[in-house]
Design brief:
Layout (H helix, E strand, L loop, with lengths): L13 E4 L9 E8 L10 E10 L12 E2 L6 E8 L4 E3 L1
């Protein structure tokens, strides 16, 4: 929807995700989706990560489908939903 008046981020912008990933990992990536926080407060910013992570996904079909690790049965993908307070520009 790309209507985020209160957020300073733009599609295509490179960012660092500071929290939310397992074990305190920090990831970098590119913003692909911006949703209106009033309409979808939990999925405000969709980031395509540089590297796949456990529990990553396809950003609701915007990225290639996530895969399931055959050993752990956990999804691994390059998409991550986050909130503006949990990222910073690169």
């Amino acid at each position: 929807m790309d209507n985020l008046d209160s957020i300073k981020y733009k599609r295509g912008q490179r960012v660092r995700i500071l929290v939310g990933l397992e074990e305190g990992k920090i990831a970098t990536g590119t913003i692909r989706i911006l949703n209106d926080p009033k309409e979808d407060p939990g999925h405000q910013i969709g980031v395509e990560l540089d590297e796949p992570v456990r529990y990553g996904h396809s950003l609701e079909g915007e990225l290639p489908r996530e895969v399931v690790d055959p050993k752990t049965h956990v999804t691994v993908g390059r998409g991550w939903w986050t909130l503006p307070q949990y990222i910073e520009p690169l």
